[in-house]
Specification:
The protein is an all-alpha fold. It is 73% helix and 0% strand. The relative contact order is 0.11.
Length: 199
């Protein structure tokens, strides 16, 4: 029974990725999965319920699984390295589950649709962002205390700058390659670090 539910979620992810939320009617989903409508309704009351399950697995679940693991004692360089390793693992995972041709565009579209159709999407994303910001602030403060980073910087501003650098929005980022994007974001963060490192 759990296998069937997983099958439905996985196939629905493919359909939502390929045609989008609005075009993926229950009829379209049913045809793609080649199962009776009653079989789908046994597990999910509506397309919205199914979409929530897809987002829980392929977006929020991915965030939870691949979030960098570090302690409150992590320095900025350790935070950068953890972030990079996490992104490399994420890129490998996404390359396996998503057609490379549509990685960024369709996955980004899925996230945007999540903002529209997933209950409390924005408050959840805000909490995730706040936790990420706090971890950058903490890593910078640890590095200042250890004498690795200058003490005359604005920690909160630098935390936001590092968060921005950690994103996949540089000109070298290829819309078919998460791994290349992870590499370029690490290069940006190491360069930023060099600007604020204690001499």
């Amino acid at each position: 029974m759990q296998d069937k539910k997983e099958y439905i979620i996985n196939k629905a992810f493919e359909v939502f990725m390929n045609v989008g939320y609005d075009s993926a009617s229950m009829t379209v989903l049913q045809k793609e999965m080649q199962i009776a409508r009653g079989g789908m309704y046994r597990y999910f009351k509506s397309k919205d319920d199914l979409f929530v399950a897809v987002m829980d697995k392929f977006f929020f679940g991915v965030i939870r699984h691949f979030q960098p693991k570090f302690s409150d004692a992590s320095t900025l360089l350790e935070r950068i390295e953890h972030d990079y390793k996490s992104r490399k693992e994420l890129s490998k995972y996404l390359d396996e589950i998503v057609d490379r041709q549509f990685v960024f565009l369709n996955y980004t579209a899925l996230i945007i649709q999540g903002a529209k159709h997933y209950p409390n999407f924005m408050p959840i994303m805000k909490r995730i962002g706040e936790a990420d910001f706090k971890s950058w602030v903490n890593a910078i403060e640890v590095s200042i205390r250890k004498g690795e980073v200058r003490g005359d910087i604005d920690v909160r501003v630098m935390a936001r700058v590092f968060m921005k650098a950690a994103g996949f929005d540089g000109p070298e980022d290829n819309n078919k390659n998460f791994a290349r994007a992870a590499e370029s974001s690490k290069q940006s963060m190491i360069y930023l670090y060099s600007l604020i490192a204690a001499k």
